[in-house]
């Protein structure tokens, strides 16, 4: 199956990697932890990539930018639940070591992607026509 436009985005692939790592960690938790903080953590992490994909699919720069902002919010929510999981001793140091580089790269990547959306259109408007 051919990749869609959002699947080619590095920022989307980072979001996918984070969500997949979180999924593999949460699956090992006991039932109570999985059904409380685990479900919220997985949903928040999955929402990052889902919002990137939806923004691309909306077809306008304005809508795409709006959904990337929502994705940033979902990343913050994911970080909140990661902190809760770590403080509740649901996550190991090894889990943190796996996730931290992805989270640390994803936040600036989302900001860079947001800044890049629509720049060609804005530049075209600024250039006088011959």
Number of domains: 1
Low-confidence stretches: 121-130
Helix content: over 70%
CATH superfamily: 23S rRNA-intervening sequence
> Which structural category fits the helices and strands?
mainly alpha
CATH architecture: Up-down Bundle
Shape: elongated
Determine and state the CATH class: Mainly Alpha
How would you characterize the overall build of this protein?
The protein has 130 residues and is mostly helical. The N and C termini lie far apart (43 Å). It has a single domain, classed as de novo design (two linked rop proteins), CATH 1.20.1440.60. It is built from five helices and no strands. Helix 1 (10-26) runs antiparallel to helix 2, helix 1 runs antiparallel to helix 4 and helix 3 runs antiparallel to helix 4. The protein is 80% helix and 0% strand. The chain has helices at residues 10-26, 31-58, 61-87, 93-116, 119-126. Mean pLDDT is 90; it is low at 121-130. The longest helix is centred in the middle third of the chain and has 28 residues, at 31-58.
Keywords:
130 residues; mainly alpha; de novo design (two linked rop proteins); elongated; disordered C terminus
Topology summary:
Layout: H1 10-26, H2 31-58, H3 61-87, H4 93-116, H5 119-126
Helix pairs in contact: 1-2, 1-4, 2-3, 3-4
